[in-house]
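TL;DR need structure tokens for one chain.
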Amino acid sequence: MADRLQRLQKTTDELARLSQLAEEEAAERARDLELLQANAENYLDVLLEDDTSTLSEVRETALADMPRIFEQLSMDEIREIIDVKAPLIAEDVQSTPAERALALMAQGDIDGVLAMDEEENAEIYRYKMVVGTAALAKFREDPQPRWHELALESFQAALAATDAERAPLDYASTCIATSNVLYALARFSEAQILLLNALSLRETEFGPSNAAVAPVLHNLAILLQKTGRSTYVEPLYRRALAINVAEYGMEDPHVAICLDGLAFLLNSQGRHAEAEPLTRHALRLAEANFGPNAARTQAFIHSLGRHFQLVKQYELAKFLLRRSLLCAESSFGPGYPKLAFGLKALGTASSSTGRNSEARVLFRHALAMDEESYRPAHPDCASDMDHLAALLSNLQKPPEVQQFFIGEALLRRAILSRENSLG
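>> reply
TL;DR here they are.
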């Protein structure tokens, strides 16, 4: 009898131990999934904030922020979860589609996320956000319109799966993600509505001077400037700048981005003397934080080159614009979609110094890239055609007569494209 009771007690103790182990494993798995979710959110934030980083840089930047969120874990422990446990979650048949997508994203397996089957699941919000993030990342290495279209479809599905009252911060973040894709697709009115929603929600949740408000103000300023409503833009840029200076200090890359945006506005208004020190300081910050030839620095080099082009210092402008293009090509390869903007700027500078043949090649290259990355009716394509048409139309020598008519036809096509896109 005593032996039986002893065996029973031993069995009870073993069951209790196994139950405790199961609870500990479940808690550890829940923590791992929480970390993967935070890592995916960071990944998306970096993609939206900075379109000049390589995907490996995006992944490292997202990872570097994790110790701030998970203070109880060291960076080595965080890397172990991502490098060792994430693959196990991705292969676990009991993992949900959202969990597998998070695990694949943490490993940098963008193609793996995009190859997943569309499965009905109770975590549609998380799943769609990861798929949208993967599509944006894929566009950076394979600039095809379908990736922007997939990102928009995914973010809109995520937006429909959440609620502004129940989860205001998730809803705001999804509004920002969706608005970025809409902006890229030149659907500016829809993007503006979502940005205003996100701004209202973040101001309500965090207060008007919180760092989370600054990127929304900055994005809204860019959008309003793009659509010709410059009156409202400068206060938005300056408010975003003040928030970031207070939060991060004057030497932080967040400040560089705000300075660059404000300088771009001032240059567009002819206030070049005010713009130049801001552009120079932004570039200095980028070089100090990222390196002189880093992918993230090239946009600031481009901005200073555009400034010198506007003040008619064309040789210096061309030097900086070529340097910017070399940085981008060395980081992303010759198919990087943002190269088109640099090619067009360099073409304009070349045309201004009488190098029309060189300018014509650059404008045609920019147009071909934009038509591949977007749809032909996109405003960036229309802008490319405007530049090419103006160049061809201004060539008055008899051999260029045919090109004059080509230029006129291109200009008509550009006007039609812009009307279709902007309404």
